[in-house]
Design brief:
alpha+beta; five-stranded antiparallel β-sheet; three-stranded antiparallel β-sheet; 7 helices; 12 strands; 29% helix; 27% strand
Length: 249
């Protein structure tokens, strides 16, 4: 009784944490429910409206003709996207669910709190599933460690955008655990388009787009955040952090 188990997790550390440590020489991670919480300044009006809300971001993208993956919150809207679909929490990070039949899509959307988007990289998922199914006696309980491509920069008080950093990120359940800089010019160009529009609307500070490539190899952003991952300018980085695996009673 009262024992606390520890486990090692690999997480990327936001650049704001690094700056604070460099300036003060010490730093302690704030915690909420035993989990590490990202430190952020108070959001501006625009960030408060669309930050973390996939449906709101999709609507903003449509209004301003910005690249963003179509997002649906009703069965009729989902039908226009076709199958397969990925279900995600409307707000915040969380596990992504693969939907391949309309009954499951309808049940998930009717339960509330979830949106769906077209599945990018469907061929890769199918190949992994076939390989798993070919293993004799293997139960149908499996997890795919997904790979996404991310771009981030910072809009300064003068409205100028810092150099865009792009990275290939491995992630589990929405939490990246390894980043490899790519400096992809096509991804950077899309982030600049978003930045120019957001800056006109008064947005300053960090800006991050995360996406994947479609069947034609075109990068399609599917989420927007005003929290940086802290993508380095140099080589690949993996951060390790020991956190509580369970809370004592």
């Amino acid at each position: 009784p009262g024992a606390v188990w520890l486990e090692t997790r690999r997480v990327t550390v936001p650049s704001a944490w690094t700056r604070r440590f460099a300036a003060q020489g010490k730093w302690s991670a704030p915690r909420t429910g035993g989990a590490v919480m990202v430190l952020e300044d108070a959001p501006d009006g625009l960030a408060a409206t669309i930050d973390g809300d996939r449906l709101a971001v999709a609507a903003y993208a449509r209004r301003h003709d910005l690249p963003f993956l179509a997002t649906a919150a009703t069965v009729d809207e989902a039908a226009a996207l076709g199958l397969p679909l990925v279900g995600k929490p409307r707000r915040g990070d969380g596990p992504a669910h693969l939907f391949e039949d309309w009954r499951t899509v309808a049940a998930a959307l009717e339960a509330g709190g979830m949106v769906v988007q077209p599945l990018l990289g469907a061929d890769q998922i199918a190949a992994r599933r076939r390989a798993w199914a070919a293993r004799a006696g293997t139960p149908w309980l499996w997890v795919v460690e997904d790979t996404v491509e991310t771009a981030e920069a910072e809009a300064g008080p003068d409205g100028r955008l810092s150099p865009v950093r792009t990275a290939l990120c491995a992630q589990r359940g929405g939490q990246p655990f390894e980043i490899r800089p790519t400096r992809d010019p096509a991804i950077a160009a899309i982030l600049r388009r978003w930045a120019e529009t957001l800056i006109r609307d008064g947005r300053r500070g960090p800006l991050r787009l995360t996406g994947k490539r479609d069947a034609d190899g075109v990068w399609r952003p599917f989420s927007l955040a005003f929290r940086p991952l802290g993508i380095p300018a140099g080589g690949a980085v993996t951060y390790r952090l020991t956190v509580m695996a369970s809370t004592p009673r």
